[in-house]
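ESCALATION

Customer reports they have been waiting on this structure for their group meeting. Please prioritize. Original submission:
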Amino acid sequence: MFSSLRKPSAPEFRPGLQPRAGITHVIFDFDGTLSWLRHGWPEIMCGLFLEHYPARPGETPTAIHDLLLEELLSLNGKPSIYQMERFVGRVRESGASAPEPTNLLAEYSRRLDARISERTARVTSGTAIPDEYLVHGAREMVEHLGKMGLRLIILSGTIEHRVREEAILLGLSRYFGPHIYGSTADHTQFSKRQVMDRLLSEEGITGANVLSFGDGPVEIEQTKDLGGMAIAVASNEEHNGSGIMDEAKRRQLVAAGADGVIADYRNPETLLPRLFINA
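Update from on-call: job pushed to the front of the queue and completed.
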């Protein structure tokens, strides 16, 4: 168990966690970990699912909402089609009908893209600065890690060309160079683990050289499986900069084996010495 802390902005650490001397590469998930352009996506997805969910006698709207939210967050880090397939499978198992997963994904993408377009327009028009759509403190953290001489990598479950475009929009691409990776149109040909294995081979490193930051169980589990250090970002989907962890995310990320959990990137002077020797 993690110790509870009075101040919600304070990081939580696995008991016995020791800083490492051999970290050379830092892998970031993108959405919810660096970018806030897609903030609120869990409620958009959950709202869509609720429109097709066959409620059973005695099920309250709150209980259904919490059930669906918990399940979709458990797949956070994978391409969204996995969440569609899981939901459709649940509905059909109950004997009810549901849209095809690809049709459900198209409608979810349409709704989410409308939000993203609004936010992108605010940045391109100058109405908003890019940092309004970065997780609080992310730029400062990335800059600090870059100055430490670490190789920085983005690895996202979002389609790769979108990740690259949005990294440019938010002024992040210069920190990562060519090391921005996303999913392919054919989700069966992509997994974060495959990319991570390839990176280890190409860079001539082992998992012990890797630190990852992510807001989904997938990247936490895979980093730990490789022997790396994994810090979970239980970022607030509705109030960027609040410093308050999203409890549903936090619960799943701790269960996934995270070495630590943060709400955002504030207080680097507290966080980094727990991760790096001589930070």
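Sent to customer with the following note: The first strand starts at residue 12 and ends at 13.
Escalation resolved.
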